[in-house]
Write a structure and sequence with these properties.
CAT-like_dom_sf, acyltransferase activity, transferring groups other than amino-acyl groups, alpha+beta, extended, 23% helix, three-stranded mixed sheet, 159 residues, Plant_Fungal_Acyltransferase
Length: 159
């Protein structure tokens, strides 16, 4: 058998699923396979489209191991293949100049600060960032304006 598509509706709202930890309610959004059927009648691909009462839509997928390489997908090749991309986010942070380890930095207390910006203030920052820019140049986004201003404030604080 090929693919099966199911449509469903639920009275649940997206907020009812919280942080999407596995629960029976969340499991109901994913199509289930009837394993009492003969193996040659099992679908290879199941799709369940569920409309929630808040208007959100859930797309649940179930894929048969027959169409995926389940045994060897996580095994390295022979010879092992090198990563295609450098994922710097997984590398340890660089050491400070003149330091041989980061033990002293790890001992320092971390400061947490929260910055609350009103919509009006964000628009003002965006307008200030874009003031004097040529109209043919793409304007700075709200994110870029906030990030740039925060970076500038942090740099000025250190001087």
């Amino acid at each position: 058998m090929g693919a099966q598509l199911y449509e469903a509706e639920t009275d649940a709202k997206l907020d009812d699923f919280g942080d999407f930890c596995p629960t029976p309610e969340l499991r109901a959004l994913i199509p289930s396979v009837d394993y009492t059927s003969p193996i040659h009648e099992l679908p290879l691909f199941l799709v369940q489209l569920t409309k929630l009462s808040c208007g959100a839509i859930s797309l649940g997928l179930a894929i048969s191991h027959v169409i995926t390489d389940d045994r060897t997908i996580l095994q390295a090749g022979d010879p092992p293949t090198l990563p295609r991309f450098d994922h710097a986010e997984f590398s340890p942070p660089p050491l400070l100049i003149g330091q041989s380890d980061n033990n002293e930095e790890r001992k320092k207390e971390t400061t947490v600060a929260m910055l609350h910006l009103s919509k009006t203030r964000v628009e003002k920052l965006k307008n200030m960032a874009n003031a004097g820019r040529a109209s043919e140049i793409q304007a700075y986004s709200r994110y870029e304006a906030i990030t740039g201003r925060t970076y500038l404030a942090l740099c000025m604080q250190g001087t």
